């Protein structure tokens, strides 16, 4: 069992864990009692993690400034793994991948095809849910990287439900033979892999070249679902053409828009308070004016200096009524003020990921008459 | 028959009708199913075909007019339908310049004539062909508008249906289209999909669940964990905590999981029993199981009473264990109870590092929950998420988002249960 397929209780030596430093800083590490995990907030010896339950907060005092610093140690899930990936690579994010998986009705009975593997982010989500995943990658270095990662994560040898193959599926189709560069271990006399996929995900620049090859690897006697993931509308158009030509039905293209909200607070500032504050300002201003007027009068009337001295510098008294904390920095949520809970959408959203084109196919629309008859007779 | 891939007897399936509506039916042997104006068919005729097959209902000879029951839909024969052909042998116009709207008069057939055709039970295709023939300005329409006309008429006269597997998503779609939006708390397929992934639902997990959707959420969980398979070798359990004396999992009656299967994998506990479980000593003092041989030896009347008590006893022990010993692998919650109280208390029973996912129709209850979880060190980074799908008219050369659609779909809160550490003592330097 791998870190992705079994629920683990306590953190152990050698396990893959995700260290949560902040929302956009999640790092995978392999627990090694001789190692230390360094962040700009401090150093965390792995020893502190071993033996603690997953989800534990690990707290330290920093060496120099003796400050409190902490991280959380989590067990990897496909969704957390996706968040931990560097954003530069093309990643299928959770709003898209989760919709695709639901629409293709993924479950332990699903045999899925995924081409190409890419960052491997979606592969992890598939592997968690489906019975078997056949992943294809045509770029050799990316294939090797993904293979190493899947092996490291236990998807290939422990869970045995992922097969990754180096292949240009557009040119050479999906069949896996013993001569291929693949993670599949062939038994004696086994010439090729029986795939029989009932869910297909194509994340390729030219899915229309791969679609004709699908017939030989999809399940013949059940409904098979397909999703093509393409960023451009022109690709969708050509995909629809190929799907129509090759007998795929129920075509529908959709877009998914995922959004995330921050929970924030906005100060409740009433108009009455604003008016009251203006009244206060006005009162103080009038006091100042009167003082100044008296001072001028005194000078004009040649009053004695002593008296003038008293009122020479009209002091502006500090604001008495300051309901909104003007002029000072107020922390959002400061209990001295009243707040309204609000949501704020992220400053930057993924306004377009890709178009998802779905299609379905039943290859063999016949029934076994003898079987039906015997079943009817047995009733 | 394999009910997971084929149409099998005594299975619930969902039928898609030409009108775009859905109908859930049970495939009882030797029975017929009526689809109203779309015809009727015998269950035995469709058994054994793959799920997802489209059938056309046809009538070979004029159905004998049965005077006793005029409203009874005659049962037709079925054949597997292949892709329907488009308009043949008609000319079309490049634009609609010459198309003048004169309303009903453009159709040469009268309402009575069409009704007569329908009574004769000629196929939908034939009725439509006759209507096109009698149409005064069909050739003045563009190809596109001819296609639209055809689709509209098909929705009315075509006699075909597609028999599909009743997945969680299809059950949801069925409920939404029939207007049960409130019953399912305005959930959408995309939000449900995201909930399942964020909660890391899979086989071999033990999940704590609050389901106010009448069992729909539980059905989605079951489908992810076992794939509709009564003979599944996968493990896992769902513990449903409910606010009424009995849990409402009504919708599971449409599922193809056996009662035995549901009893084994879905456990229900009331909020009261979950938070104030009976004590072991209370239960044990109320009842002591007998050794097996002694129980067998009991007289009939006594035996029944004994086994009833034994069932109660085992249920109590199980409730105690679910409420006090299990550390859950996720909390999934679709509830209108006050969340800032419900969620932290339930999440006490969630194992560290496991997800907490709450669905709500409105953003505000989740906002309040998010604020309260922020201040609670047992929860990591609560976030409010929204996901919406936007379907397109998917026809080459005419790709555009659909003009109107159902809105809604609710919101999710996603967080992880964590275990706060003591702040370490400041070291004396």
Your description of this structure?
Chain A: Catalytic subunit of tRNA (adenine-N(1)-)-methyltransferase, which catalyzes the formation of N(1)-methyladenine at position 58 (m1A58) in initiator methionyl-tRNA. The complex is a heterodimer of chains A (379) and B (429). Chain A is α/β, with parallel strands linked by helices and 379 residues long. Chain A folds into two domains: 67 residues, Vcp-like ATPase, Chain A, domain 2; 205 residues, Rossmann fold, CATH 3.40.50.150. Chain A is 28% helix and 25% strand. In chain A, the strands form three sheets. In chain A, strands 9-8-7-10-11-14-12-13 form an eight-stranded mixed β-sheet. Chain A has a four-stranded antiparallel β-sheet with strand order 2-1-6-5, with helices on one face. In chain A, α1 runs antiparallel to α3. Chain A is elongated and about 125 Å long. The mean pLDDT of chain A is 92. Chain B has 429 residues and is of the alpha/beta class. Chain B has an eight-stranded mixed β-sheet, with helices on both faces. Chain B has a seven-stranded mixed β-sheet with strand order 2-1-7-5-6-4-3, covered by helices on one side. In chain B, a hairpin with a 5-residue loop joins β3 and β4. The radius of gyration of chain B is 29 Å and the shape is flat. The chains are: A alpha/beta (379), B alpha/beta (429). The interface between A and B is large, with 86 and 90 residues.
